[in-house]
């Protein structure tokens, strides 16, 4: 099973990917997390991506494809995976089809998660992330029981440098120009399913699983 989650920044793709990964027992591939790890470690890919990410711009396709291709070849992806934050352009979607097709595979479903701008802003500004394990929380909707520390590993929670209104606006502009055309791309292939994200996360997960034919 190969699932793609798309939607504007802050819509909840990461939260849903984690929940679906646990239920379906396939890995959650968060492209943003992989890129941030490379930036932190100052790898070749990290250095190439850093300037784009700091300004809320899309990382060039050739860099992204290299990262994704490497990741989906790993053993844990044999039975499928969930893509979060990829593809973001028509070119990336076409390249993904080629990658999967070369192995006799194709996407199972593409979920387009939607929410109004005010909800996106609230989620972005209030998001907190564990600097060690990457677990995600929110100051209003998903508080850590350990206060300012992660419930999973106990490390400090931080706000990402790019979780600001200015960066969100840049990312939404990029999304409208580059990523939104993917809606038509996947509609033509009969893969697109639109999900309203203005609900509690458990209900959203349940709706996605029902579309996949999973009994909740």
Task: Tell me what the structure shows.
The chain is an alpha/beta fold. It has helices at residues 13-24, 31-41, 44-54, 61-72, 90-101, 117-126, 165-179, 182-188, 201-211, and strands at residues 2-7, 28-30, 81-84, 109-114, 127-130, 136-138, 157-158, 192-196. It has a five-stranded parallel sheet. A three-stranded antiparallel sheet has the order 6-5-7. A hairpin with a 5-residue loop joins strand 5 (127-130) and strand 6. Helix 1 packs across helix 9 (201-211) and helix 2 (31-41) crosses helix 3. The longest helix is centred in the last third of the chain and has 15 residues, at 165-179.
Topology:
Blueprint: E1 2-7, H1 13-24, E2 28-30, H2 31-41, H3 44-54, H4 61-72, E3 81-84, H5 90-101, E4 109-114, H6 117-126, E5 127-130, E6 136-138, E7 157-158, H7 165-179, H8 182-188, E8 192-196, H9 201-211
Helix pairs in contact: 1-9, 2-3, 4-5
